[in-house]
Amino acid sequence: MPLEFKKVKNGQLTISYAIQRHGEGPNLVILPGALATKWDYTGFDEFFSKDDNKALGTVISLDFRGRGESELPEDEKVKIGFSVDDHLSDVAAVIDEVGLNSFYIVGHSFGAALGLKYAINNRDKVLGLIVGDYVPFCPPFDSNWKEKIEKRVGQFNIHPDLPSLLKDGFKPEGFVHQLSEIDGLPLLIIKGQFLSNDKAMKMWSAMRNTQVFDGPKDHDVYSSDQTRKRVLNFCGASLA
């Protein structure tokens, strides 16, 4: 089926997502980084393609609140949260709307940490987790981060208030102590700039069913054809 762009209500928000239904293969849920959108993935033929890829099932990617076409309410009296759980509610709204009961999570950066937390909360649904160059931890969006992003806000497809909203409304959360709850879950770690040192990689050491792939040396690990093909191979191998 062709690539489609749809929206779903999540409380006061409307969350936008991309979806393509292929064949009977594994389903993929792609979670973008903190400032990325669904558009960063829809151009990859390995995930979304003009030709129906029968090796896959349904593939979806979404815009988190305040990014892309997931707009924020114009009424300032409507308070919107930006916690880990708030972001995960965007994911759940899309998955429930599409009706997926089992799938792989393909996460990048901040989206990889959110994907980990989703897997911890929904172990029965998640077949495997692909971590794109990130640690099992959501750090704070501090003042320095906010100032850097505000200077370049025009480079991102985000709501102009998002840097301030994340700084004030997001609380850091770590998940290392919860890794034992999903021990045995197939895990593919894509190493890039963030996971280039041993200290970062050791944070994942509690996971025993782990494969590691050396991606590009920068943080944009899914830009590589080899990385995307490795993701698909991982999903197929884990189902065998």
Care to describe what's here?
- The protein has 240 residues and is of the alpha/beta class.
- The protein has one domain (4-140, 173-239): Rossmann fold.
- 27% of the residues lie in helices and 22% in strands.
- The strands form two sheets. Strands 1-2-4-3-5-6-9-10 form an eight-stranded mixed sheet, sandwiched between helices.
- α3 runs antiparallel to α4.
- The longest helix is centred in the middle third of the chain and has 15 residues, at 84-98.
- The radius of gyration is 17 Å and the shape is globular.
Give the SSE string: EEEEHEHEEHHEEHEH
Major β-sheet annotation: 8 strands, mixed
The radius of gyration is: 17 Å
| Estimated helix fraction | 25-40%
So, CATH architecture? 3-Layer(aba) Sandwich
What is the CATH top level name?
Answer: Alpha Beta
Q: Write out the strand line-up for the largest beta sheet, numbering strands in chain order.
A: 1-2-4-3-5-6-9-10
Strand content: 15-25%
> Total number of β-strand segments?
10
Would you identify the CATH H-level superfamily?
Alpha/Beta hydrolase fold, catalytic domain
Shape: globular
Query: Unreliable segments (pLDDT under 50, ≥5 consecutive)?
Result: none
> What's the tally of helices?
6
From the N-terminal CA to the C-terminal CA, the straight-line distance is 25 Å
Structural class: alpha/beta
* Mean pLDDT figure: 93
